[in-house]
Fold this protein.
Amino acid sequence: MSATAPAAPAAPVTPGAAPGAPPELQVGGTFTVGRLSEGVILGLAAATSRDSADPVDQALGRALAEARPDLVKPPVDPADIDPASPGRRYSLTMVRHFALHDDERADVVVMRGSLEAVLAKAAVSRRDKTLIRRNAVWAEGRGWRPLAVATAPVTGADEVGPFTVQGFVYVGQNRAKPLPNEGPADWAWVEVWSASLRAQHWINVAVVFILSCTGYIIMDPFFGPSGGASSDVGFMMGWVRLIHFSVGFLWIVVGLTRLVVAFTTRDRHLRWNEWWPLKTKTDVKRLGEVVGYYALIKRHAPLFLAHNPLQQLTYTALYLACGVQMLTGLTLFGLYHQTNWFWEMMAIPTHWVGIPFVRLVHTMTMFALWAFVIVHVYLAVRADSIERHGGISSMINGGVWLRRDAKPVDAPEVG
Ligand code: HEM
């Protein structure tokens, strides 16, 4: 993960404006992706001509003087400034002989401006871009305006190299002080889901979709030929059933793989004993708290890195429903093939309870799976939007975002 300096917002400059006048701009803080210090980024952002009347320049100058009195505001020749314009939402400023690192002075060109404009122009890794956007969302959510800062080296012959994004400063009029313990740079990316689980998840999505479509047509052949002489089209149901059975067997293989993994893996999130989350009285209490939170009775729920007990119980019930679906599918399939002992055995339950009942269970389970999918997608989008933990993308890249000081009950430490 990209190194991120802990949040040490530049002290907001308290406005000394006359009563009734619009509040002065303040600098709320600085965010760095880790290559330059926060002070240096503030210094680079503040680099303007000495007599600039721009309120943003002035706020940055004041913040630099307060937060880093040791750093002299770099003097800039007005001829070295190419200001932003409506068509180009960033300025370019040549800063000469600036100490980027302790004992290393160099000439750099600073690109300063709208976050999206700078991210589009300057080089930035995907991880840094995500980190910057997440922290910018944090700042914007509190009324600050992020101003991105990118730098490019200047070679001896005054040639400008490629720009690299370094971070941003956030400016605004909204608040004298940021909220305590709410620095933006304290997110950590924690790996939770193994590649095998993610692969199984998406195979399940595809498989359940195909089985639902073909199963629904078997249940209610609402389109296609309804008989007649043309055997070409008349075999459509045969194909639908063939797809249903083939994908059904593939799904059973996927299910068996999951079962084997549950008993052999060292990954604690995948092990079979996770399937029953209520092992102690505290677990039951936490379940009550989570239910209260979902029912809008409680304001907070205990934080879990993987599944909370309610989620885990739902997924365990889902596994059972999938098992029922596979078994009822197999016993129905057995009816057609009672020429060997295996399928004779598989068909026994259908003989006991009757074909209509098994078909009913198989169909009702399909509708239950659909209900699960709808609620599952809704809750995933909701949780991701509220908690901003990247839960949806975690099923692709395997990790979630958590605040560094977060203390999930199922993980000792974050960040
Ligand atoms: C998400 C998984 C599945 C869904 C949603 C699903 C859905 C359905 C539906 C709605 C029917 C029609 C029931 C009826 O009215 O007769 C059906 C039939 C059937 N399904 Fe599934 N099914 C699934 C998995 C399986 C599996 C794993 C198998 C096993 C290979 C299987 C085998 C069968 C068989 C043999 C029939 C009866 C076909 C016929 O009589 O023509 N299904 N399925």
